[in-house]
Design goal:
It is a single chain. It contains 13 helices and 16 strands. It is of the alpha/beta class. Helix 12 packs across helix 13. 49% of the residues are buried. It has a 7-stranded mixed β-sheet with strand order 4-10-9-8-7-5-6, with helices on both faces. Strands 11, 12, 13, 15 and 16 form a 5-stranded antiparallel β-sheet that branches. A 4-stranded mixed β-sheet has the order 1-2-3-14. Strand 2 and strand 3 form a beta hairpin. It is globular, with a radius of gyration of 22 Å. The structure holds pyridoxal-5'-phosphate. Pyridoxal-5'-phosphate binds next to helix 5.
């Protein structure tokens, strides 16, 4: 079937073995655990994936942003193997171990903020968010939490409450945790205030103060959590004034400012952390995904005095900061620094935007092209004037792509955004081949 430079499609997609496994998954795994493709993986390296039928794909999804260093980098695999030869698990509450301490120190050092910091390691992004909320409530002795419409912070009950998207994350899962309030995000393509940047003077940032007047007084609010670039919300990059203004309001009112860098962190946006594009120092930074270099890991890094608030034994968990994950993470961070993947993210992002702007000229369905560094997306609309979202067409592009050998993700509150999270180790040749498949897919719908 289709043969290219890197992509090799030798069966229908999905092939017979993938179809068989998919039907077994349907019998054994609840449908709530959705999939963006029906393909079963056999192996993966760098920016390529081979399935159980022998088809090779280019990966523009990177495990939803967890693989900035690519699939199975040698250094990460070596670190995991060496650690596995020593010990797998003891639990940090039972015996302390060096990989946890080294990684906490590394995160305290590389995260922005010229003040003493401490880090707790846990397992998933949602668990990092949960811990951040517990810690800030303990520290401030306040309970209100502010988050944003369109934001995503996880699927546990607290993090689902903070999330600002009903479908598929909140629908029918019952009442949210109380004392959580959502603010409008600076989504300029669909401005919640019907205004245009910069004449709007970023009025959306001031909305926080309206909440203090009418919803909850500032002295009852423990924290504000925000993604510097919204991920699941559709790669929404706010104007440069938005976060600094919100950060200022938080600082003036004793509200802990939490940057959720779980998707945007670790060089994805062209800096190690997305907030480094702005002159702000969050009180807390949450990381996961590419922190682990493909392993299960998340972290809360914050001002030492905030992190120290909870009593002994109030934080943690059996597997938090697993030795294999810590070693994988130290190796992955080393690769990011050694190979200057932040700078590579900028060049990938530039090429992606150039190609996507050219596609926008040709295909009216592309309403908006946006992004920061290599966190780039296109928003699809049925009509550029009305901006009516095109979710069905977006799903179709995704299907056309994987059938031609490109794994790509959709996102967005209206499910009409194609987002690109390529491993930052992708070669130029792989990038071009992926872009040509994406363009063919746009053309075919
Ligand atoms: C910004 C952000 N926060 C939190 C999470 C939750 O992470 P996890 O799925 O590891 O719980 C995600 C996951 O996509 C995310 O993108």
């Amino acid at each position: 079937m289709a043969g290219r430079g890197i992509v090799k499609i030798v069966t229908d997609v999905p092939g017979p073995k993938s179809r068989q496994l998919y039907s077994e998954a349907e019998q054994n795994v609840p449908r709530g655990v959705g999939h963006q493709t029906p393909i079963a993986v056999s192996s993966a390296r760098g920016a390529t994936i081979t399935d159980v039928d022998g088809n090779t794909y280019l990966d523009f999804a990177g495990g939803i942003g967890a693989l900035n260093v690519g699939h199975c980098p040698d250094q990460v695999i070596k670190a995991i193997k060496e650690q596995a030869d020593n010990y797998l698990h003891v639990c940090f509450h039972v015996l302390i171990y060096e990989p946890y301490i080294r990684l906490a120190n590394k995160l305290n050092t590389i995260t922005p903020g010229q003040f003493p910091k401490k880090t707790i390691l846990v397992n998933s992004g949602a668990e990092a968010v949960e811990n951040a909320i517990k810690i800030t409530r303990y520290y401030t002795k306040r309970y209100g939490i502010l988050s944003f419409l369109g934001g995503f912070h996880g699927r546990t009950t607290m993090t689902m409450s903070l999330t600002g998207q009903i479908q598929p994350y909140k629908y029918n899962f019952g009442p949210s945790v109380p004392w959580v309030y959502h603010l409008p995000f600076a989504y300029c393509y669909r401005c919640p205030f019907g205004q245009t940047y910069p004449s709007c003077e970023v009025v959306c940032a001031k909305y926080v103060e309206r909440v203090f007047e009418s919803v909850m007084s500032a002295d009852a609010i423990a924290a504000l959590i925000i993604e510097p670039v919204q991920g699941e919300g559709g790669f929404i990059v706010p104007p440069k004034e938005f976060l600094p203004e919100i950060c200022r309001i938080c600082n003036e009112n004793g509200i802990v400012f939490i940057a959720d860098e779980i998707q945007a962190g670790f060089a994805r946006t062209g800096k190690m952390f997305a907030v480094e594009h702005l002159s702000i120092e969050p009180d807390m930074i949450l990381t996961a995904k590419s922190l682990g270099g493909g392993m299960v890991l998340s972290a809360v890094t914050g001002r030492a005095e905030i992190m120290e608030a909870p009593h002994v034994g109030g934080l943690g968990g059996t597997y938090g900061g697993h030795p294999l994950s810590c070693q994988a993470s130290l190796a992955a961070i080393n690769v990011i620094e050694r190979d200057n993947l932040a700078s590579r993210a900028n060049s990938i992002g530039q090429r992606l935007k150039e190609a996507l702007y050219a596609m926008q000229e040709k295909y009216p369905i592309i309403g908006d092209v946006r992004g920061l560094g290599a966190m780039v997306a296109v928003e699809l609309v049925k009509d550029r004037a009305t901006k009516e979202p095109a979710p069905k067409e977006t799903a179709l592009v995704r299907v056309k792509c994987y059938q031609k050998g490109l794994i790509i993700l959709s996102a967005g509150i209206h499910h009409n955004v194609i987002r690109i999270l390529v491993p930052l180790v992708i070669t130029d040749e792989e990038l071009e081949e992926g872009l040509s498949i994406l363009e063919e897919s746009f053309k075919s719908i």
